[in-house]
Each structure stands twice: as structure tokens, then as C-alpha cells.
Amino acid sequence: MICLSKNEQGAELLAGYLSRTLDAPRMAELGRHIQECADCRGLASVWERLDEFAVPEVSPGFDARLYARIASEEARVSLLSCRRWLWRPIAPLAAAAAVVALVLGFLHVPGTPHSAKQASKVEIEQVAQAVDDLDLLTPIDR
Amino acid sequence: MRLVFTFAAAVLLAVSPVAAQDNILRQKAIPQQKAKQQKQQQLKMVPLPAPAVERFLQMSPDDRERALSQLAPERRQQVEQQLNRLQQLSPDQAQRLQDVYPAFMNLRPVRRQAVRAEIKELRQMRPVERKDRLNSDAGSFSPEEMSILRQVTGIPE
Fold this sequence. Notes:
The complex is a heterodimer of chains A (142) and B (157). With 142 residues, chain A is mainly alpha-helical. Chain A folds into 2 domains: 10-52, no CATH class; 62-137. In chain A, 75% of the residues lie in helices and 0% in strands. Chain A has helices at residues 10-18, 24-36, 38-52, 62-86, 91-108, 111-137. With 157 residues, chain B is an all-alpha fold. Chain B has a domain at 91-157. Chain B has 8 helices and no strands. In chain B, helix 6 (109-124) runs parallel beside helix 8. The radius of gyration of chain B is 27 Å and the shape is elongated. Chain B starts with a helix and ends with a helix. The chains are: A mainly alpha (142), B mainly alpha (157). The interface between A and B is large, with 29 and 47 residues.
């Protein structure tokens, strides 16, 4: 008896069942179990629904723009928090604090190359996945 | 005799820097020629249907190197080998790939995974076995998926 909720490899079994990559006896056994077990039936139907969700195509360079935006937002937030921390009612120190805050802000800006690196990593992984698929789909020479 | 010898030495001294310079220029021209040939080859190729890969191929060699260096060494080697194979496809194969890839990408992710697994199996088989397997696949795969499997294997209905 395979119960997805009680099996340690439940998620893998479910993925295999939904993609029909399990061997025939396991497919049949799990199919029968899903008919009988309400929990597993619910789990399978949720996954099937999720799978039906059509993910809209993203525009080229979406990841790079997203990571750049996250980085600039992070830099802005850290700059604001530094300013708040440094801003004291002590008037003579205010100007100096502003300068320090600005310097700290500049020190935080170089976070951008890191995020650019992250973005390019994501993109090269997308390229690698697409290359895998293209290679796999290349017509077989008979 | 001495005069002849001196003249020969003078000619040799005068010619050798020219020859060396010529050699340097020729060596400099080799990478340029190679890049030009690569560019011409790319222009002749049917473009690959995956925009991400096409964008990658349009990158400068330095940018490409930088991007590839982010992959693990084995993965990088695998991707480079695959790219080499893809760049050597015949126009007919490239055209068939143009047809099949968008259809594959239109499948739901879970079905894409099933089709991937099936193609891997089919690739391991002999042509006769492939035909039998495809006939038995009809029950497990949708008409769209079967069309992809048939296009990849080149086995018509």
C-alpha cells in the first residue's frame, strides 16, 4: 500500500505518478490507492490544478531587471536606516551624521554587482536548461 | 668574395625585421579571421528556437566566458559540448528543431518532464524497438506529445 502522506518519498512518487514515469505496477497501485484515499486524492488534485496554471511568458532580461531593482531597493532601505540611526537632536553633529550616512549609503551601493552576478547566474542556468532541451529534442539520426 | 659576403649579410639584416614584422601581423590576423569565420558560420545557421540560447550566442566571447564560468566545471563542459553539437546541425535538423521546440515548451511542466524521460528512453533504443515503443506510447501520451516524439525519432504515424 502506498500512501503519499505516510511515505517519505511521497512527493517524488506523486511527481512520478503525475508525469507517468513510474513503472506500470506502481502506477496501477498508486492509481488504486488514490481512488480509495481521500487525502491522497486531494493532494493529487491540487498538484494537477497547480500544473494547469499557465505561467505567463516573461520579457527578455526580466530576471536581470528584477534583481537590479531588489538591489537598489535594499540599498535605499539600508541608507534610510543608517540615517535614522545617526540622526540625533544634537545639532552640531547633524551635518557630520549626514555625511557619514551618505558615505555608508555609497558603501552599500556596490551590492549591485553582486545582484548582477546573481542575475547572470540565473540566466546562464536558463540557457543551460534550454540547451539541454534543445539537445534532447534534436532529431535522432537513423 | 668578401664584398659578396658583406652584401649578403647586409641584405639579410635588412630583410629579417621586415619578415619578423610580417610574421607578427600574420599571427595577429589569425584570431580576427577565426572570429570572422565564426560570425559567417553563425549567419548561415538557422537560428535556434530558444531565445535565451540565441541571446547567449550573440554575446561577446568575453561575456560568454564570464557567464559559463558560473557553472560547475562538469556542467560547463556538458553545456559546451551540447552547444557545439547544436551549432553543427544540418539545416534540415535545425528546421525540425525549430518546429518541435515551441510545441515542447507549450506542454505543461509535468508533461514536459514525462516527454523528456520518454525521449531519453527512445534514444537508447534500436530503430525497430523505437517503432514498437512509439506504438505502445500512444496510450500514455497526448496527440501533441506523440507528435513531438515522432518528430524527434523521425518515425511517421
